[in-house]
Amino acid sequence: MSLGLSRARWLALALALGLLVLAPLGLKRFGLYMLSLWCVYVIAAHGLNLTMGYAGQISLGHAAFLGIGAYASALLVRAGLSFWLALPLAAALCVVCGLAVGFPALRVQHHYLAFATLGFNALVWLIMRNEEWLTGGNFGIRNIRRPSLAGYSLDGSLAYYYACLAGVAVMSYALAYLLASPWGRAFAALRDNPIRAESLGIDIRAYTLAAFAIGALYAGVAGAFFAPLVGFIDPTPFNVPTSMSFVLAVIVGGIGRLVGPYLGIAVLILLPEWLRGLPGEGLAKLAQEWYLVGFGALVMVMMVWSPGGLLGLAARLRGHRP
Amino acid sequence: MSALLEVTGLSKRYGAIEALRAASFSVAAGEILGIIGPNGSGKTTLFNCILGQTTPSGGTVRFRGIDLTGASPLTISRRGVGRTFQSLQVFGSLSVRDNLIAAAQELTGSMPTRLFAPSDAGMGTRADTMIQRFRLDAVAALPAGRLSYGQQKLVDIAMAFMGEPVLVLLDEPAAGISPTLVEELRTMFEGLNRDGGATFVVIEHNMDFVMRLAHRVLVLAEGRVLVDGPPETVRVHPKVMEAYLGA
Amino acid sequence: MSDIVQLVASGCATGAVYALAAMGFVLLWQTSGTINFAQGEFVMLPAFAMLAGLRAGLPLPIAFVVTLLAAGLVLGAGFKRAVVDPIVRSGVLPLVVATLGLSLAVKNAVRVGYSAEAQPFPQVLPGGTWSLLGVHISIADLGTLVIAGALLAGLHWFITRTLFGRSMQACAQNPDAAHVLGVDVRRMILATFVINALLATCVALLVTPVWFAKFDMGDGVGLKAFFAAIIGGFNQMRGALLGGLLLGLLENLAAAYVSPAYKDAVALMLFVVVILFRPEGLLGRAQERTV
Asked: In chain A, whose CA is at the least distance from the CA of B122?
């Protein structure tokens, strides 16, 4: 099925992909690690973008699904399963959890999902920390090895980077396909005008639930790639503040736009690293320490002047109304 | 032959305010019923009760003999009832063509099958026909939010017809558009009624429009049905004058 | 027997504090539709402000009063004028996001600018226990209960007995009708923001001696405030009261008899039960769907 992209867009896409494939030439191990992390987080952010930008629901529990994906796949691999089987299973588990959270919350009121996800994240984090027999508690799971594909080991930084890049490419394509299908149209209708949508036979509850569950799936996939990338997992990154950072990253990038997550995650994790490399130790240190403060402040300013995020700003500068 | 739509004793109160008082009327298949009445007479409330947007405090709504009182908008639309709203309700970010397809895609198949269906969910041809009928060819690919008020109005109305509804409820379709467009609209409606056999119920303030379009006219005042009859009768009925000009 | 009384007293004390935080949250939500995800930080900031006052040599009561005034000004009026007013025009979602950004910015500003470590805070209430008929209750718990209870009673009196308070309630239930009846809706909304800031400061005074001042102390309070409000019935101010008390009580009992490690999950459990069986909250009124 055609994705409805113009010739110019395909060209830009090919260019971006090309750059990403060639990027390792100028990067050392740490740079590759950061870029791989960017790929992984973008997958998660794509899922959140679907939930927020299309179903219009704020999810404050995205990090929980990331964690479930990470722990589930790590544990399954440790139990002897191949990574490539553990990945879809972990993702499926996230979908089930997403449905379990979303279904009761959506019966009530539209914004109750935000609170439900908040509580869900807190609960999941508690389970990760307390159930040592399963998760290793605060110590977590160590020595997670990277998988191999068709005999080739993906252990090296470069190899695993290309694996992550392939992952984000596949997931991005799947999302584009979804949005070009009738589901995508229903999602957009749901976002633009839920009352009209309902009166036209569009089941807004079912589609909102679907968007939320798919969002969870994406976070699960991201989690599965995350664990071998970092090499160990503990509860620390999978908490509410991380969920909030994801929300803000998606917003900053441009909510509801397919390109948004790439920008948003770049601002969230690549920009501070780049700032750290700035000349002048004092300035670099200052930038790094105060980065999150600046990020939070940026979000607030953005909500006043450009609720459409960076992409909305770009559109405004080009002369369109955001 | 039993009526297509039967409203019996429909009431709605909001606290101490009675928006509808035991309103009763019926609509025969293929008919065009006009509903007029001064502001606040309960016209939109009537629509909301029939279409499931609000639950009535009393009375029944029967469509094709089935009791649909208090059913959800989803159920009602799937049974073949379309509507437009008083304020424009289009999907601003979708193109005109996508708006039309969205208006019909959920009425066939199921959610899972729709995921793997072709992009236009099989509604492409129907949408194109509607675009031609409503003369929206020039703007078909533009996002609906960028159209002029009159054009958005046409999209809105076209959307109500995309589901090939048996009954269409139109809330002030002629409001806020130029007289030429109003006349075009009237012709379009007559055509749709004649060719497609769609039954219309139209709320309007534009007397000329309603009187020339409708087969029968209902006058609502203070939540009650005042008069129910052919346009010529209603036009000169003393009670109607009273309702509009005040006793 | 003595244990249970101690637990109940302790639970009610915590619950009363949750109720205070939830009350402010509900006020904001009800009157202006503002969902403030930085509510926890509205408790954290006054805690650090008082700390700064103490470090500067002010006695605690003075530091408290000064912080109250500053909070009312900055977290109340300032927050409304600078953050809420410009953004609320764009809808609810941007405002929620802005409060998330505020929460992130403020938390990290304190963490980096002041310290990431927990800072000790002087005791406000005397230590020791009070014994009666073989039952021991900690004086601090009693004191917290009395103070929070007094504040809640005072707030309740203000809302139901004074003209200002009743006008505020009218605004909360139906701003358009209130406006038509001559109520200065904008002033009412400003009042709710100021009251929220003051309540949060009181919460800070009550919890910081126990939890110590830390940049992320707002996380726990915020979460509990949200859930207490929903459990009790967010469209009723009494709901915040009931929700808070119930939450504090059940948490304490669950921690003692079920599992201390999952104490914080009680709020979520209650929330799930409520939305499944009584979505409008324990004291809430079912809301009709509006077109």
From this structure: A182
Domain residue ranges in chain C: 2-277
Mean pLDDT of A4-32: 86
Are residues A193 and B105, on separate chains, in Cβ contact within 8 Å?
Answer: no
Please name the residue of chain B whose CA is at the shortest distance from the CA of residue A320. B146
Of C106, C267, C279, the CB nearest to A108: C279
CB B108 within 8 A of CB B174: no
Distance between CA atoms of residues B187 and A275, nearest Å: 66
Quote the number of domains for chain A: 1
Tell me how many residue pairs between chain A and chain C have CB atoms under 8 A apart. Answer: 118
Residue B43's CB is within 10 A of a number of other CB atoms, namely: 24
pLDDT in tens, A223-235: 999 999 999 999 9
For residues A167 and A175, give the distance between their C-alpha atoms in angstroms, rounded to a whole number. Answer: 12
What is the domain range of residue A38? 27-135+143-237
Chain B: residue whose CA lies nearest to C289: B54
Q: Is residue A278 part of a domain?
A: no
Within an 8 Å CB–CB cutoff, is residue A114 touching chain C?
A: yes
- Tell whether A171 is covered by a domain: yes
Task: Inspect the interface and report whether the beta carbons of A196 and B91 lie closer than 8 Å.
Answer: yes
pTM exceeding the 0.90 threshold for the entire prediction:
no
Which residue in C has a C-alpha nearest to residue B86's C-alpha? Answer: C291
User: What's the CA gap between C238 and C23, in Å, rounded?
Assistant: 8
- Provide the CATH number for the domain formed by C2-277 in this structure: 1.10.3470
Using the beta-carbon criterion (under 8 Å), do B159 and A200 form an inter-chain contact?
Answer: yes
Q: What is the pLDDT at residue C286?
A: 65
Q: What is the pLDDT of residues B198-239, one digit of tens each?
A: 899 999 888 888 888 999 999 988 888 888 889 888 888 887
**Is A276 part of any domain?**
no
pLDDT of residue C289: 38
Report CB contact under 8 Å: A200, B121: no
CB of C200 closer than 8 Å to CB of C75: yes
Q: How far is it, in rounded angstroms, from Cα B125 to Cα C109?
A: 58
**B53 touches C at CB < 8 Å:** yes
Report yes or no on A54 lying in a domain: yes
Distance from CA of C100 to the nearest CA of A (A): 7
* The amino acid at A126: L
- d(CA C207, CA C144) in angstroms, rounded, equals 9
Tens of pLDDT along C251-286? 999 988 888 888 888 888 888 888 778 877 888 776
Residues of B numbered 100-139 whose beta carbons fall under 8 angstroms of chain A's beta carbons: which are they? 101-107, 111, 114-121
C291 interfacial to chain B (CB closer than 8 Å)? yes
Domains identified in chain B and CATH numbers = 1-80+165-247 (3.40.50.300), 90-162 (no CATH)
* pLDDT surpasses 70 at B135: yes
Instruction: Check: CB of residue C72 under 8 Å from CB of residue C7.
Output: no
| ipTM (interface pTM) | 0.85
